[in-house]
Amino acid sequence: AVVFEDQQLTYRELNRRANQLARHLQELGVGPEVPVGICVVRSLEMVVGLLGVLKAGGAYLPLDPAYPKERLAFKLADARAPVLLTQQRLLGHLPASAAKVVCLDVDRQIAAKESGENPISGATAENLAYVIYTSGSTGTPKGVMIEHRSLVNYLRWANDVLMGDTVDGLPWVTSPTFDASLKQLFAPLLRGREVWVPAGNAVAEPVALLQALNARSKAGLNCVPSLWEAILDANHAGRVTPTESLVALFVGGERLSRELVDRSFRTLPGLRIWNLYGPAEATANAAAGEVVSQDEVSLGRPLANTQIYLLDRNQNPVPIGVPGELHIGGVGLARGYLNGPELTAERFVPDPFGGEPGSRLYKTGDLARYLPDGNIEFLGRIDHQVKIRGFRVEPGEVEAVLGQHPDVRETVVAAREDQPGEKRLVAYVVPTQGVPTPTELRRHLKAKLPEYMVPSAFVALDTLPLMPNGKVDRRALPAPDPSSLRAEDAYVRPRTPLEEVLAEIWEEVLGLERIGVHDDFFELGGHSLLATQLVSRLRHVFGVELPLRYLFETPTVAGLAKRIETARRSNPAPSAAALSSHGLDEGRL
Fold first, then answer.
1. Which DSSP category does 280 fall into?
2. What pLDDT, in 10s, does the model give residues 203-233?
3. Could you please report the per-residue DSSP string of 302-323?
4. Which sign, positive or negative, has the C-alpha torsion 415, 416, 422, 427?
5. DSSP annotation string for 363-396
6. Rounded to an integer, what distance in angstroms lies between the CA atom of residue 417 and that of residue 399?
């Protein structure tokens, strides 16, 4: 049923362990409508824990161990979760809370005393299955409540339409804090297939993930377009080539470009590509369409038992070709926001077209139009919400946290796309007196927000540009200057030819100028996907094996130069062709 590295569980073993945990949770008071926090690293215990909560009748509340303590504490308190499932290794990172802590590893013997027979959960189709928190425009995350009927409807569609007889399994690469994980975990279990949990390096490194996919048969991959592009970059660098083992690609969370589709079909002509669309409020996906050519990239059509309406400001349907706000209705709709009745009423409005009493529509804030063939084309947002590498970000939440810094008087956060396909968050700051450094601001934000919500650039302004009505003129916000908010004495120029080459590669990957040898890759706006791109290029240029962890351990030009020098003592010199492909001169090394 589940495979993780060299460990595995049969269906009988998984069912027995989940049943025993469920009975133990019931003794702790877990039942219908009771949220249970689960903060676990990738492991067999994660699968057992999620199923155990559902079998007990409760609703699972996924918590990412990589998130700041303060954010984890807010979710536990806001959900009023009476129980928290975790592992002993994570106890030091968990915030203090009123929840009863159960370690799925060291406390396993306690649950093992329970019967392994299926418990009676008491849950119905209308009870909660899970609560997932998303970024909130008010400054705090909001919990989306999904019921069992919505989850079952979605998984039935995923198995019938997406998987069918084509795909045997998907690697579970998405954290359970994001609903893309639903099809990766529960869909295989509902059809008697194997849940495949790749090792940590396969999730972090495109090369390792592609190698793992190549080792399977009839494999699918569910990811954001930017991760798939990083995989194709690894292929282009000659590290590993996709094989026909990968038969289907399911992408969502970001706009799928025609260029990426064309590149995908040229690399794997027989690949089936599905473009998926939908917010957490609609149980992961509300529309989907198979992409057959680069000229036909759309959101497709609604899922089973789902309705989509494109409406104008007066809630009237718009004609074909005319933009309108996308509204979602049907079985997949969330119950609403946990402890947020006002926000629920604002975003989940009465359905004027529904035939059932109490039917609702979710106002997505997305702008779209109908194409002549009936498919839906995404056009953008009507508000400031953005997607960064597939992650949903409300700039207002980042602004609220950044405004708590004592040296920040005013701030506005916006997404910029200064390079095609490279969207990033930029924070514009009006300081009180002293100008805070990017390092100070990033540390302040990282203590409260997950990594993907931390801006990659900071710009100091005397005042924010305003329109005549007093609102911030976002179009007048300047492009970030790479040296903004960085003290001049913090810059140390490259001292050796190797450091010069490394600095140039960093500048290309980060889109910055004047990288110093002691500048931190991640403090300059680097993130996990850019890290994989950087390491892939370094391997190609220098012809040495560089694990991704090297960059996390020594995220500076000076540190990586030492690693490369050590590795090159036992490896051949880089080829002239590899250097030339990056515009570099072999003689400099």
1. G
2. 777 777 888 888 888 899 998 888 888 888 7
3. E-TTEEEEEE-TTSPBPPTTS-
4. negative
5. EEEEEEEE-TTS-EEEEEESSS-EEETTEEE-HH
6. 19
